Amino acid sequence: MMIDELENGSLGPYQDRPRTFPNMRSKAYTPWVFRVLMGINVRVLFVLLLLAFAAVFYVGASTSPIVVFVLSICIISFLFSIYLTKWVLSKDEGPPEMVQISDAIRDGAEGFFRTQYGTISKMAFLLALVILCIYLFRSTTPQQESSSLGRFTSAYITVAAFLLGALCSGIAGYVGMWVSVRANVRVSSAARRSAREALQIAVRAGGFSAMVVVGMAVIGIAILYATFYVWLEVDSPGAMKVTDLPLLLVGYGFGASFVALFAQLGGGIYTKAADVGADLVGKVEQGIPEDDPRNPAVIADLVGDNVGDCAARGADLFESIAAEIISAMILGGSMAQRCKIEGKVLTNPSGFILFPLVVHSFDLVISSVGVLSIRGTRDSGAKASVEDPMAILQKGYSVTIVLAVLTFGLSTRWLLYTEQAPSAWFNFALCGLVGIITAYAFVLITKYYTDYKHEPVRTLALASSTGHGTNIIAGVSLGLESTALPVLVISVAIISAYWLGQTSGLVDETGNPTGGLFGTAVATMGMLSTAAYVLTMDMFGPIADNAGGIVEMSQQPESVREITDLLDAVGNTTKATTKGFAIGSAALASFLLFSAYMDEVATFAHEPFKQVDIAIPEVFIGGLLGSMLIFLFSAWSCSAVGRTAQEVVNEVRRQFIERPGIMDYKEKPDYGRCVAIVASASLKEMIKPGALAIVSPIAVGFLFRILGHYTGHPLLGAKVVAAMLMFATVSGILMALFLNTAGGAWDNAKKYIETGALGGKGSDCHKAAVTGDTVGDPFKDTAGPSLHVLIKMLATITLVMAPIFL
């Protein structure tokens, strides 16, 4: 009867009023690319797609059978993602009040996305012009001179790769948001029947986004590689060698990093400013529940989940995979060249260069199996709600891990076997196993520190019982402690993988072992070999969070809210887990990109560049500047959230004062005003920290290059930038671990108290926990995630801009 009353909208005075939410759609929000495609006749579009696929496969076949295999797997994964989309969209959206709330969230998210990415695209074109000018006036390398690759060609290739990487990263972000704003209401509706069904819908919606993001990263690099291979007639007499080709792809990684950084900053500021404003006034001052329809900031908060956690995270993981693939391809080509690896089609240098693409192709396959392993049940109601969603997700991850080990071993035997070192493939398979174990260890460590079933979060919740201050102290100490185990795991992984690579039997012309760095690259690939499933778990979090908000706003029964609260708490843990996973992969990928940077500097300078001496004062200063950059960037990111949240708090307070009927459901809040405040402020606030990240390494390298010119040290600029990159990477990893884990722990400590522990909702203990959660919000969803993107972007920008440091 209760549900009937809810569906009929007859539960009291607020429901008697027409349920209308602000229509935030000012103009068509569908990106122009999709509008053009939708305007084409279906048959014509089908023919065009067939021709495009034929052209892509022709270019791939002209390059290597490995490329054809990669392209085929990517196309199949896209078809699988279409199946997941249709399956999710076939589910019911629930009663009308749920649909209205979902529509308001969707309009706000897609409207902000359009404006944000319009701003980012303008900055991307401006930066592309800067890159073009630098490359047109830079010196050429001996390899470019021998292959007749002039400055103009090199410049246009780099700019085209940069813009393609930026475009694909933007599409990855749009896909992440597109599915989340449509799946949230379906998860809410399913929660009225079964927790397992709601879980399955959220996971499959996240799986759709993951397949598209990973598939686009792989197919984008594969197409770019094959196109350059055919266009430049690689490996033909007088042309570029295949081992030098991966260096032309660096622009793609830089473009992806550039978009991911601004997407993460803008989305993070949006979501956390709205969240902080809604919590401080709604929960603490007015004592109303989270996502209560009386809170004027609630729609902005729910919109933020989509633009911050879905769109930004899609672009983030796209960038992670792209950077890792490109750095591994560069190191694979470099090692193959030094070892003079030759032979059959699959054991020539192409095998080592294309190995990362094959690993991530298998990632799409095994992650699909992992997503499908999570099935719905016929149980409903209380029985279904007893199930632990985290245990179900963990089983799916375990299935994916087992398959990853098998496919990784198969890939190494297929592509890394060489007659010069017959057992090398096995050593590299062990390197991959090290990476997979590292990923699993990161998942377990992060889960231990952020899941309220374990002691750290429960201790943090207990600290809330003695006040706000002790909650903050306990949260900070937990975050600081949580950096130790991940650093030890990363250290062991790097040492182990490097040693396995060095002892693989591959040697250069002088007989020196040369597989160490490539072993580390393979370990990084192993760590990211389950990236699609990890992204699925990450996307699950904001979808479940949105579903809980829709249930609360539409005033569903408490039993339904309990299900979505359970999913939301698990979603907080999976989001924290993914961030820890991303930090670990960022550490390894940055190590690889740093090595590639040193190789490129040596190539341009025509002299060895194998070490950086921090005993040189200028080089030490570069290191200090790198560490300072991390702290300043974090400070600006958090202060941006704070300033925007202040505006939201003032607006929410004003509405409660000027519209006293809101608390009695007699007057409706102006949701659109809070959405407008956070949208405009986040776009403005993201510019300063983003510009700092881009300008700093370029300015430092150029200034010290001039100083080196006058003091007789021609490599001084390159050395100072190398030190800056090293110190920024180390400081950034530690800071990101602290921020992400502390923020996640504060959030779940609040969730633990809301289950009824330590006085439950509305108690003094709960208010202290809300304060901690508020402090942790910019940590875990703005500064922390932006930092690991910053680390990789610094590495790619120094690689692209290396010529101006010499």
From TrEMBL:
Major enzyme class: translocase
Location of this chain's protein in the cell: Endomembrane system
GO cellular component: endomembrane system; membrane
Domain of life according to the entry: Eukaryota
Record keywords: Ion transport, Magnesium, Membrane, Translocase, Transmembrane, Transmembrane helix, Transport
EC number: 7.1.3.1
UniProt GO molecular function: diphosphate hydrolysis-driven proton transmembrane transporter activity; inorganic diphosphate phosphatase activity
Membrane topology, record value: Multi-pass membrane protein
Primary location recorded for the protein, binned into one broad class: membrane
Sequence intervals crossing the membrane: 32-60, 66-84, 120-137, 157-181, 201-225, 245-263, 397-417, 423-445, 484-501, 513-535, 580-598, 619-636, 690-708, 720-739
HAMAP family in the cross-refs: PPase_energized_pump (MF_01129)
Name assigned to this protein: H(+)-exporting diphosphatase
Species this chain originates from: Ziziphus jujuba var. spinosa
